[in-house]
Amino acid sequence: MPQGILQPGKIPDPIEHGTLWDTSIEVQDNGNLGKIPTVFVEEADSQQDEYRETERLLQRTPSFGKTVKFILPPITIEDNAPQEEEMQFFQAVEDVLGGRGYSFKHIFHSNHWIDITDDKLLRKKILRPGRGEDSRPLPGQQVTVYLMGILEDGNLVEKDPKLSFVLDEGDVIQALELGVRSMQLGEVAFLLTNGLYAFGLLGRDPDIPSDASLLYKVTLLEVRDKPSLVALTTADRITLGNQKRECGNFHFEREEFRSAMHSYSQALTILTPNTADPLSSEEEEEIREHRIKCLNNLAATQLKLHHYDDVINSCNAVLEMDTDNAKALYRKGKVMSDYPFTYN
């Protein structure tokens, strides 16, 4: 699903270790607890002379009669840094928006913000300039950003210290695609977006309401060329392919069918095995299952766009791997029965 999605991590409570140990043992004596030093125990009268000599020798040692205690230093896991970052973020928001109880409404018409879109529904305010025009990212390049975002009510709904995505591949909302494309390497900026360029009428359950505006603070940390697919391991291909498929699902739910088709096609390209890198039987089966999911989703999208020839091709590709696949059989049959003259 397109970023940014805040996945709040569970911060463990402080852990302390501090244990007191000594060399004495406790015994029950007529209901009363008493301590007997283990370094000296009285024996029967017949052995008193022997033990008196032992005691005399022991008393000459510096440690005689002392209780030994081991106190372990406390170990505490602290998590101050994220809290400080959030405090700094909210302070910057107040400084820019004019204190507590701020509203986004007046910013959409402010002369101190830069319009990224002509409709003034996506705007930017530069907090720290970047390294110059030559450092702007290009379509197809991979960028890494530090991202924090809030709703108008002040709720923090986005936080990702190292969000990476490829520009123009539909992996993030339009506000981030267009906003980051306008930035220079090292630049820090606020991006204010209307719901149109964010999560739209559907919002994002459970934290972002329908048609909600968002304010992001974005730092462009890195710009580099897109990684080569040839260098990806099978596990990396599966992970990246699933991410692209989830992006397609995100667009499909919003009836953005062309964007969904683009994401599913990208997923299939990534999930095409490298012939130079032989797969184990388990890897082949896993790749096959993921390709079937992508092809079925692609066929559903093509059906929405009335691309009937492509629906047949996608379904046939599924049936080559799984002859009894119910979804592929249904969609292929639907096209052949309902639209017999619209495909070749």
From TrEMBL:
Catalytic activity annotation: [protein]-peptidylproline (omega=180) = [protein]-peptidylproline (omega=0)
Assigned GO CC terms: cytosol; endomembrane system; membrane; mitochondrial envelope
SMART domains per the UniProt record, alphabetical: TPR
EC number of this enzyme: 5.2.1.8
Signal peptide: none
Domain of life: Eukaryota
Single GO MF descriptor: peptidyl-prolyl cis-trans isomerase activity
Any one biological process term the GO annotation gives: negative regulation of apoptotic process
Keyword field: Isomerase, Repeat, Rotamase, TPR repeat
Record-linked SUPFAM superfamilies: FKBP-like (SSF54534), TPR-like (SSF48452)
Domain PPIase FKBP-type: 140-224
InterPro entries according to UniProt: FKBP4/5/8-like, PPIase_dom_sf, PPIase_FKBP_dom, TPR-like_helical_dom_sf, TPR_rpt
Pfam families reported in the protein's UniProt record: FKBP_C
PANTHER family for this protein: PEPTIDYLPROLYL ISOMERASE
Protein name, UniProt field: peptidylprolyl isomerase
Organism: Engystomops pustulosus
Source species taxonomy: Eukaryota, Metazoa, Chordata, Craniata, Vertebrata
